[in-house]
Write a structure and sequence with these properties.
By secondary structure, the protein is of the alpha/beta class. The chain has a single domain, classed as Vaccinia Virus protein VP39 (Rossmann fold). The chain contains six helices and seven strands; from the N terminus they run αβαβαβαβαβαββ. It is globular, with a radius of gyration of 16 Å. It comes from Rhodothermus profundi. InterPro entries: MnmM_MeTrfase (IPR010719), SAM-dependent_MTases_sf (IPR029063). It holds the Pfam family rRNA_methylase. This is Putative rRNA methylase.
Length: 202
């Protein structure tokens, strides 16, 4: 199986699957958003995908996350095509230039806390994540894609994942195609991936 061994196929890593989904939609030269930059893995992926003619906007409320992400981008020599904001993702529509509203190719979310960070109590929450998701749909171009990896294992994670799932379920089917990827045969809390495509006719 491409991208993974037979004992650990690639789709066990939801972030890897999210990258593959975005890669099929996001074109070089486009603009994209990493709504939760964290350690910068999605930010770097997006920056490499859009290429030197494109641009990426990244959001995080922790300066520690932005510093780690900036270092990762500089090491890959793609930092000039990324703008980072020390701000919550619910502010993305305010921060992104109006010329790009309705023109983004992709928006990626990775919820929870900063892995390896000094403050694991600083987590994403439904009261800011849900407005951010609405802003992301508004900012996407027709045919664009939103991906979201949610985690249920930490305090507050299950409630947020459930809120996001309910949000996706209520999206109008004539404007969006929403899918949820999760495990069927695991008992402990596991991550899950939600993908929303904005239909071309939207």
């Amino acid at each position: 199986m491409p991208g993974g061994s037979t004992d650990r196929p690639f789709f066990l890593e939801w972030t890897t699957l999210a990258h593959r989904i975005v890669e099929a939609v996001l074109r070089p030269g486009e603009v994209a958003v990493d709504a939760t930059v964290g350690n910068g893995h999605d930010t770097l992926f997006l920056a490499q995908r859009v290429g030197p003619e494109g641009h990426v906007y990244g959001f995080d409320v922790q300066a520690e996350a932005l510093a780690r992400t900036r270092a990762r981008l500089e090491a890959a020599a793609v930092h000039e095509r990324v703008t980072l904001f020390l701000a919550g993702h619910e502010h993305m529509a305010e921060k992104i230039p109006r010329a790009w509203h309705g023109r983004l190719g992709a928006v990626m979310f990775n919820l929870g806390y900063l892995p390896g960070g000094t403050n694991r109590t600083c987590i994403t929450r439904p009261e800011t994540t849900l407005p951010a998701l609405e802003a992301a749909l508004y900012l996407l171009r027709p045919g664009g894609v939103l991906t979201l990896v949610a985690y249920r294992g930490h305090p507050g994670g299950a409630a947020e994942a459930e809120a996001v799932q309910q949000w996706a379920t209520r999206l109008p089917p004539d404007r969006y195609v929403a899918a949820r990827y999760t495990f069927c045969n695991r008992q402990r809390p596991t991550p899950e991936l939600i993908v929303v495509h904005k239909m071309v006719s939207a």
